[in-house]
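Explain this record to help learners:
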Amino acid sequence: MPEITIRIPDDIFKEMKNFSDVDWSEVCVNAIKAKLYGLKVAKKVEEMLKGKTFAELSEKEKRKIILKILRETESKT
């Protein structure tokens, strides 16, 4: 498994030391997964907007996009 190095401000690191039972590596991996998921959803919405802004869509188009993303999300869990 690849390794990465992150830089953490001293004050946060001191607080982390108070919780030595926490697997901070796992916390980082979960944060990265969550960020990736959000980026993928944003990219999918952008593709579905086809150059429009969300505000420019009709209510029907907005519902269609939201439902499609929710269905895709549910099928991946």
Q: What stands out?
A: The longest helix spans residues 24-49.
